[in-house]
What does this fold into?
Amino acid sequence: MKKQPHDKARHISRCLELAILLEAGAHKPGNVSVVTSFENTRYEHFLASAVAAAACFERAAEQGILISEGKIQLTEVGVGGLIKECVADIDAWQHGGNTLLGAVILLVPMAIAAGMVPSESTFEIPTLRKNLRHVVVSTTPEDAINLYEAIRIANPGGLGKAPKLDVNDPNATNTILNDKISLYDVFKIAEKYDSICSEWVNNYRITFDLAYPSLTEQIQNAKDLNTAIIHTFLKVLVAHPDTFIARKVGFEKSREVSLMAKEILDLGLETSRGQESLDRFDQGLRESSNLLNPGTTADIIAAALALLILGGYRP
It folds into this structure.
C-alpha cells in the first residue's frame, strides 16, 4: 500500500527525532547525556526539545514533498521560518536554555531534502545530499531574518561578535533586506568561525564525508551504538576543532581539546587506559562552567545519526 504524503513526512520526522534522542543520550565527553548534566541543562531538557521539534520536522518534510510534486518552488519553502518555529516550540517546552539550535539549523534542511526524495521509506544518501545543496542555496533574505530571530529566541551562549552582519546589530536586518543577502550568503560570511555555517556552505562536508562513514563503520565493528557515537564524536573533534569552544575561549584552546581527543583515540576506547583517559577528558571539559563544551561537534553527530536512520538503521 502506497504511503500518503503525510505518512512520509511523519516518517522523516520520526527519523530526525530519534537521531536527536540517540545523540543526546550518548555519554559524549563535555556534553549533557543520560548520565551527565550541566548546572541548568539536563538530559530531560533534550528529551522535551526532541519531542517539541518533531512537528516542525514534519512540516519541513511536507514542504519537500510539495517541491517534489511541483506544487511549490524551492524559494518558497521558508527554511528560516521553519527554523524559527522549531526553536520557538523548543523554547516553549523546556526551561533548560538553548539545547538544539545548531542541530535544528542542520536538520530542518535535511527534512526538506528527504521530503524531496522519491522513496517512501528509505533515502539514498547521494540523492539526499544533492537535494540539500538545492535547499540551502535557494534561501532568501527573509530566511536570513527569520534565522536571526531564531537565534535571539534560543539565546545561545558563546555567540561572540561577528565582524559583519552581527545578529545583535540593529542595522543588520535592514542591510540584509536592502542588499538582498540570502541566508546562504550570511552563512558564507560566517563559515570560517562556525562549523554549522560551514556545513551549509560546503554541502555538509563533515557530516557526509567524515561523521556518517565513521558512524556506519563503528556500528558495524563495535555493535554498540553508544561506543560508536563516542568514537565518531572524538574523530570529528580531532579533525575539526570545535568552533563553539573557539568562540568562547579561542582557537588555540579548541585545538588543545582536539589534541586531547586524539590521544584518547590513539590509546583506543576499548582499552582500560583509553577509558581512563576518556573519563579524565570528560571531567576536564566540564570544569570552568562548561566553557569547553564541544556543542557544535554534538550537533554534527546528530545530523550524521539522522542520515544513518533515514538510510534504514534501527537501534
User: Anything to note?
Assistant: The domain at 5-217+302-310 is CATH 1.10.4200 (Triphosphoribosyl-dephospho-CoA protein). The chain has one domain: 5-217+302-310.
